[in-house]
């Protein structure tokens, strides 16, 4: 075309135009072949060379567009009240079917307010994450910054690998609050969300690590638990942690809890002969922030007494296997064991008494027999004496 | 070579700081309660307000961690020396603004005397360690402090009470650090 000036002239004009019309952010997605539109609005698809109203045909994904929602105007296609069914590859063809222009149309929503959640696993970094309240269906980028109120904005660093997460490195402690700003940008515009965070409120350590438990030899009702500071919490600590240990027999539903300030504690009231589940959690000793999540459950069995006599062993294993059947508490198991013991004692006492009685009876009979025997003898003597006396002389 | 850290002095100062920490938290809530809206509103934030001459406690963990004993104690000493003057100013203001808020006034005076004790203990620690006690200007209040409007006085009191809570949080950590250092 000879209309415009020479090539350099066109270049200059193009440059000036783009300088003037910089919509700062939507430029990210400037791509001749993709057009973005807002769901519900009217979209105009341009066919490049306006050919004085010469007939053009529009196709969607290769198929001719015939819809009550699509209006042809000067070669351009206007989609009214757009919805997601109108997304796709549009192409504009001339009478001969030759391709004049192809555009992909993607529809979605503009950015809206985000849900921001910040947490600090220690005193030297804050991690903020966010999510959309409503899906936009469009490519999105986020700009994350923060400030201490009146100071200048600083970057909250985003990781290449983690989406929708940023880290404030080396934040100021003993400062009242931060304001975090996450700006959502997509082809339809940008919106920023502010979140005020109080450092001391968002501190939440990671759970304690390497939790383990050992039986205590000779003590069937004790277990010793060990754990370590989470790797993310500095151990040199002018920021010491305090801990809670929760434990329960496997079959039980209610937990017992003990407090600890060191890295170990001894549980002194566990149920003998039962597996227990143990967990530990941590919190700043001064009470700032929140408890960590509970560490993963570990199982432990306290020290068992050496194998008892067969009958007793049977009764104790019986009560052990009956555990899962009964819904009653484990205390009744202990009671029945004691009852067995009492019964055994009674039986032995009874049999001992029986032996005594038998002996007593035996001796009584013996004495009686002897006594009887003596009587008989004396009687016989008497009768023989009398017989002798009655004999004629 | 500095003298070995005096254990009992540090422990005592630590206990006082822990006490003051609870004290100042209570002072802040009580103070806000009596100032009316927006101070007494929920979700109030400081917007980064600062007062000239009033040191801020804010410090990054890394920078704070690297302080020498002298810097550590010195910063605390300087801070509380300034706060004690501002605290007196706030007490005077509140005596005029809220004369019937007896619990607030009592709390202000109690905090004032405890901060004075803390300053004494910090000075004692530094002397015991052979450290130089930093010089503090006698009159630190900014010009025109006494002719402020009611609104300005209220704001000022808020910044002082809030700043104190931040400092006590930091001081408790400073003393924990010193206690642990001695044990090593």
UniProtKB/TrEMBL annotation, chain A:
Residues 306-335 are annotated as: Disordered. The chain crosses the membrane at residues 343-369. Residues 207-303 form the Fibronectin type-III domain. The keyword Ribonucleoprotein does not apply. The keyword Signal applies. Gene3D superfamilies: Immunoglobulins. Keywords: Glycoprotein, Immunoglobulin domain, Membrane, Receptor, Repeat, Signal, Transmembrane, Transmembrane helix. Residues 8-92 form the Ig-like domain. It comes from the Eukaryota. Residues 1-26 form the signal peptide. Belongs to the type I cytokine receptor family. Type 3 subfamily. This is Interleukin-11 receptor subunit alpha isoform X2. It comes from Huso huso.
TrEMBL record, chain B:
Keywords: Cytokine, Secreted. InterPro entries: 4_helix_cytokine-like_core, PRF/CT. The keyword Secreted applies. SUPFAM superfamilies: 4-helical cytokines. It is found in: Secreted. Pfam families: PRF (PF06875). It comes from the Eukaryota. Belongs to the IL-6 superfamily. This is Cardiotrophin-2-like. It comes from Huso huso (Beluga).
């Amino acid at each position: 075309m000879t209309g415009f000036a020479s090539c350099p002239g066109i270049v200059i004009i193009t440059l000036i135009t783009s300088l003037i019309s910089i919509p700062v952010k939507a430029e990210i997605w400037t791509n001749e072949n993709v057009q973005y539109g807002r769901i519900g609005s009217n979209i105009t698809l341009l066919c490049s060379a306006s050919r004085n109203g010469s007939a053009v045909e529009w196709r969607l994904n290769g198929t001719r567009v015939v819809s009550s929602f699509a209006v042809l105007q000067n070669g351009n296609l206007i989609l009214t009240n757009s919805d997601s069914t109108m997304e796709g590859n549009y192409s504009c063809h001339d009478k001969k079917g030759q391709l004049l222009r192809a555009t992909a149309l993607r529809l979605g929503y503009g950015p809206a307010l985000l849900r921001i959640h910040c947490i600090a696993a220690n005193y030297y970094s804050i991690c903020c994450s966010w999510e959309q309240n409503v899906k936009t269906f469009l490519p999105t980028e986020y700009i994350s910054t923060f400030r201490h109120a009146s100071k200048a904005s600083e970057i909250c660093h985003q990781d290449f690998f983690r989406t929708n997460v940023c880290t404030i490195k080396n934040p100021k402690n003993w400062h009242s609050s931060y304001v975090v700003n996450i700006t959502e940008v997509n082809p339809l515009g940008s919106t920023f969300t502010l979140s005020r965070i109080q450092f001391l409120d968002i501190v939440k350590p990671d759970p304690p690590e390497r939790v383990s438990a050992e039986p205590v030899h000779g003590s069937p009702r004790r277990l010793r638990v060990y754990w370590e500071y989470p790797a993310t919490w500095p151990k040199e600590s002018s920021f010491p942690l305090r801990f809670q240990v929760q434990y329960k027999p496997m079959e039980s539903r209610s937990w017992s809890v003990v407090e600890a300030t060191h890295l170990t504690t001894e549980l002194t009231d566990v149920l003998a002969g039962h597996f227990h589940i143990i967990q530990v959690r941590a919190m700043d000793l001064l009470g700032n922030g929140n408890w960590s999540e509970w560490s993963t459950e570990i199982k432990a069995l306290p020290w068992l007494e050496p194998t008892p006599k067969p009958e007793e062993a049977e009764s104790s294993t019986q009560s052990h296997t009956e555990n899962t059947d009964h819904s009653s508490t484990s205390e009744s198991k202990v009671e029945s064991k004691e009852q067995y013991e009492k019964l055994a004692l009674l039986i032995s006492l009874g049999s001992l008494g029986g032996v005594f009685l038998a002996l007593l009876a035996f001796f009584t009979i013996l004495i009686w027999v002897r006594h009887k025997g003596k009587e008989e003898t004396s009687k016989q003597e008497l009768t023989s004496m009398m017989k002798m006396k009655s004999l004629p002389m | 070579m500095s003298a070995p850290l005096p254990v009992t002095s540090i422990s005592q100062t630590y206990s006082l700081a822990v006490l003051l920490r609870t004290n100042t938290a209570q002072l802040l809530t009580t103070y806000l309660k009596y100032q009316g809206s927006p101070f007494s509103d929920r979700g109030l934030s400081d917007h980064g307000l600062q007062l000239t001459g009033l040191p801020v406690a804010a410090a990054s963990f890394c920078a704070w961690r690297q302080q020498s004993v002298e810097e550590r104690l010195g910063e605390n000493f300087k801070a509380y020396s300034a706060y004690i003057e501002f605290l007196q100013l706030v007490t005077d203001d509140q005596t005029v603004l809220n004369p019937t808020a007896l619990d607030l006034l009592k709390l202000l005076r109690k905090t004032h005397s405890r901060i004075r004790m803390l300053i004494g203990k910090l000075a004692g620690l530094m002397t015991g360690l052979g450290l130089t006690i930093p010089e503090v200007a006698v009159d630190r209040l900014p010009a025109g402090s006494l002719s402020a409007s009611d609104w300005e006085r209220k704001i000022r009191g808020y910044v002082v009470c809030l700043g104190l809570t931040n400092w006590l949080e930091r001081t408790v950590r400073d003393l924990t650090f010193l206690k642990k250092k001695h044990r090593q």
